[in-house]
Amino acid sequence: MKLGVQANAWRHQWNKDPKSIINHVKDIGFDFIEIPLMNINELDVPALKDTLKNIDLEVCTSTILVDDSVDITSCDEEVRKNGISYLKRCIDATNEMGAKFFSGIIYTKQFNRTNIFLENDLWKYSAEGLREIAQYAGRFGINIGIEPVNRFETCLINTCEQALHLKEMVGESNLKIHLDTFHMNIEEKSLYETIKLAGNDLFHVHLNENDLGIAGTGQVNWDDLFMALREINYEGYASIECVVDVKGNYVWRQLAPTSEMLVSQGRQFFRELMGKYGL
Description:
Layout: E1 2-6, H1 11-16, H2 18-27, E2 32-36, H3 45-55, E3 58-64, H4 77-96, E4 101-105, H5 119-138, E5 143-146, H6 160-170, E6 175-180, H7 181-187, H8 191-198, E7 202-206, H9 222-231, E8 237-240, H10 259-276
Parallel strand pairs: 1-2, 1-8, 2-3, 3-4, 4-5, 5-6, 6-7, 7-8
């Protein structure tokens, strides 16, 4: 298993000096960095590529469809086309940085709401859009991942079972599953059974405590999670995503004294679990 961290753990510093964060991630002993592409126009992708190459740090990318203008499940065909174009730009950036995996809430706009009469259209449009994106990503040897999130953030994919159903509808082999323990803790009955259900389709795990605080200080059953990862012989990505920035990311109270403490203690906690379970 590859242990990494999402760059948003240092949200403000990341915005100002991404290259220093990449170097820091390497120095403190992570295997990869997850680079968010939400503000893709602000990223100096060639510079990031050079930095990653020079320090030999692996990378994956992620994004969230947060804008109505790029919703691939919109009733408006032009909006759906805009969403597909945006996701293709993310694939291009992923490829340029040398990454081979791109994932997130890419199947519909975050905080999307619908009524039961539109539900079938939502699934249909999502599958059509992801099929085109998966085929485009396949040209570069890139896998893409569906990340289920809780019912308060989307009406479409809340569980691993739903993600697997959407994957089946899309029908592309490079479409994978990306699970997040924060959302699993809300929506799934068992972390162990969910990991086993994802099986060989699992490609990325966000390692988040139930309150997004320091790993090991909350209610997530980490032993169940890591036992299941061992049993499926998991060799994919697993990143610490949680942040302590109270000015963004829907975090309104301090969850750790500093981002550095959250990251460093999380890294130590997960390295110990990886050793315990032979990952």
